[in-house]
Amino acid sequence: MLKSYQKSVKDADNELVHLYEIRDSLSERFGSKKSAIQKLGITSTVWDEIGKLANSLPLKQGRHRGKALGALRNAEQTELDKARKSVTHLIEKYLAHLEHDKSTDNHMHSKN
After folding, report:
1. Could you tell me the sign of the dihedral formed by the alpha carbons of 50, 52, 54, 55, in that order?
2. Listed residue (43, 46, 54, 44) closest to 21, CA to CA
3. DSSP state of 60
4. Disulfide engineering: 79 pairs with which of 13, 68, 75, 104, CB 3.0-4.6 Å?
5. If you ran DSSP here, which 8-state letter would residue 61 be given?
6. Rounded to whole angstroms, how far apart are CA atoms 24 and 3?
7. Cα–Cα dist 101/32, whole Å
8. CA 26 to CA 80: how far, in whole Å?
9. Interval 10-57: pLDDT, tens
10. Contact in structure between 71 and 58 (CB atoms under 8 Å)
11. Which of 81, 74, 69 is nearest to 14 (CA)?
């Protein structure tokens, strides 16, 4: 996740592609979108935000440039900010999940 975020900073032409990789890695880590949403304690709307920006909009920095029907445009600064904020939130939720698991494990081991 951190490597993808670093790539997004260094490779502005593909920023949304790299940011989307973060969500993709969470889906892979938890086995599915549904499981990731549940384990991270987020809504589908929160999960779908980066997908909308990276996949659906006809943006030059997006993932599906060749599938856009019209002309591609550069992402607006507000869209890029929203994408960054979206994946930062996902990373924060994942870190909280890891901390929770760690504290649960420690609690379980201290009882034994």
Report:
1. positive
2. 54
3. T
4. 75
5. T
6. 13
7. 19
8. 20
9. 999 999 999 999 999 999 999 999 999 999 999 999 999 999 999 988
10. yes
11. 74
